[in-house]
Design brief:
This protein is an alpha/beta fold and about 325 residues long. It folds into 2 domains: about 150 residues, Quinone Oxidoreductase, Chain A, domain 1 (Alpha-Beta Complex), CATH 3.90.180; about 150 residues, Rossmann fold, CATH 3.40.50. Helices cover about 30% and strands about 25% of the residues. It is built from 11 helices and 15 strands. The strands form 3 sheets. Strands 3, 4, 5, 6, 7, 14 and 15 form a 7-stranded mixed sheet that branches. Helix 3 packs across helix 4, helix 3 crosses helix 10 and helix 9 crosses helix 10. The radius of gyration is 20 Å and the shape is globular. The protein starts with a strand and ends with a strand. About 45% of the residues are buried.
C-alpha cells in the first residue's frame, strides 16, 4: 500500500511517500481502508521529535485520526462489521493514518452516522471532541460566559467558536493572525476578532470586555505565552492549556502568574488538557460529549470546520501550512 513514512525526525521534508506492506489486524484490532486522514498538530509534534506522550518508533507513519471503511477484523473482534463506515484513532505506534490502510484498536473505532462526510468524521475526535470537552466539561460555558478562542479559523478553533455559539455564550472573542482569518471566525459566530499575535492583543480583549476580562480563555501557543493569556482572565476566570504550537523550549515566567495564585488571587484557575487522559480517567463524560457533538452536526447546529483536502503525497505541504499558521479550517489527506 501507499503510505507516508518518516525514517528520521525533522522538518516537513522527512515525510516521504512510500510503498510498504499492507498491515494485518492483530487480535483486538480493526483494519480500515482510509478515505480521509486528518492532519493534526500532534502529528507535527511527533514528526519534529518533540516530547509526546506516545512513542514514535522509526520508520513511522504519522496520522492519529482517520475515517473510512472496515475491511478486516482481528481475532476476537465482533464489530463494527466489514463494509461499515467508521471513524477512529489509528495506530498508535508505527501504523498511523497517513496511508491507504490503517489499523486501530477496537475500542478506538466508532461507527459513523449515516451520510456523514468522511472529511468531517475524520475531524471529530482530536479537534471536535477536544473543543467540546474544553467548553462544556472544563470551561462550563453558558449564556453569561465570555470566551476567548485563539487560532479561531483553524480546525479546533472553528469547532470551538461554533460550540461556544451553540452553548449561548454571551461574548465570543476570536484570536486570528490575518484579516482573512478574523473574518472566517466572525462568519462562524464570533462576536469580535483580534490579532492575537499582535503586541496589543491583551489590551484589545480587555477593552472589548470593559476591562473585566474573559470567563474562559483557551491557550495553545506555549509556556512563554501563558502569562499573556493570564492577563485577560476575569475574576474566577479559567484558562485551559491544550498545546504548545510554538514548542516547549521556553519557560513559564512565574512573575506573570503571581497575581493568579497570590495577591490579589481572584479565584482564577489554569487547567491542563490532554484528550487521552479523558478517555483513560473520565470515559463516561467523554462519550457523552462525543454524542453531543455528533448530535449538533446531525441537526445542523454546527457545521464543523471548513475542509482543505490534499492528496496523500502532499503530506509535507500540509505540515508546512499547519506549522506556519498559513492554513485555515481542517486539513485532511486523501489516500
Amino acid at each position: 500500500m501507499k503510505a507516508i513514512q518518516m525514517t528520521e525526525t525533522g522538518g516537513p521534508e522527512v515525510l516521504q511517500l512510500a510503498e510498504i506492506p499492507d498491515p494485518t489486524p492483530a487480535p483486538g484490532e480493526i483494519l480500515i481502508r482510509v478515505e480521509s486522514a486528518a492532519v493534526n498538530f500532534a502529528d507535527v509534534v511527533r514528526r519534529r521529535g518533540d516530547p509526546f506522550d506516545l512513542p514514535s518508533p522509526l520508520p513511522f507513519t504519522p496520522g492519529i485520526e482517520v475515517a473510512g471503511t472496515v475491511v478486516a477484523l482481528g481475532e476476537g473482534v465482533e464489530g463494527p462489521p466489514v463494509g461499515s463506515t467508521v471513524f477512529a484513532t489509528a495506530g498508535p505506534y508505527a501504523n498511523g493514518g497517513y496511508a491507504e490502510l490503517a489499523v486501530a484498536q477496537q475500542a478506538n473505532v466508532i461507527p459513523a452516522p449515516e451520510g456523514m462526510d468522511p472529511d468531517v468524521a475524520a475531524s471529530l475526535l482530536a479537534v471536535g471532541l477536544t473543543a467540546t470537552l474544553m467548553l462544556t466539561e472544563v470551561g462550563h460555558v453558558g449564556t453569561s460566559s465570555t470566551v476567548f478562542i485563539p487560532a479561531a479559523a483553524g480546525g479546533l478553533g472553528s469547532y470551538a467558536v461554533q460550540i461556544a455559539k451553540a452553548l449561548g455564550a454571551a461574548t465570543i472573542i476570536a484570536g486570528a493572525s490575518t484579516p482573512q482569518k478574523r473574518q472566517i471566525a466572525l462568519d462562524s459566530g464570533a462576536h469580535h476578532a483580534v490579532d492575537y499575535r499582535g503586541g496589543a492583543w491583551t489590551e484589545d480583549v480587555l477593552e472589548l470586555t470593559d476591562g473585566r476580562g474573559v470567563d474562559l480563555a483557551l491557550e495553545m501557543t506555549g509556556p512563554e505565552h501563558l502569562g499573556q493569556t493570564a492577563r485577560i482572565l476575569a475574576p474566577f476566570g479559567r484558562m485551559i492549556v491544550f498545546g504548545a504550537v510554538a514548542g516547549r523550549a521556553g519557560k513559564v515566567n512565574g512573575a506573570d502568574l503571581d497575581e493568579v495564585f497570590y495577591a490579589p488571587a481572584l479565584g482564577q484557575a489554569i487547567f491542563g488538557f490532554n484528550l487521552t487522559s479523558w478517555f483513560e480517567h473520565r470515559l463516561a463524560p467523554t462519550i457523552g460529549a462525543l454524542q453531543r457533538l455528533i448530535g449538533w452536526i446531525a441537526d445542523g447546529t454546527i457545521a464543523g470546520p471548513p475542509i482543505q483536502a490534499f492528496p496523500l503525497a502532499e503530506a509535507a505541504e500540509t505540515h508546512r501550512l499547519l506549522e506556519t499558521g498559513e492554513s485555515t479550517g481542517k486539513l485532511v489527506l486523501k489516500p
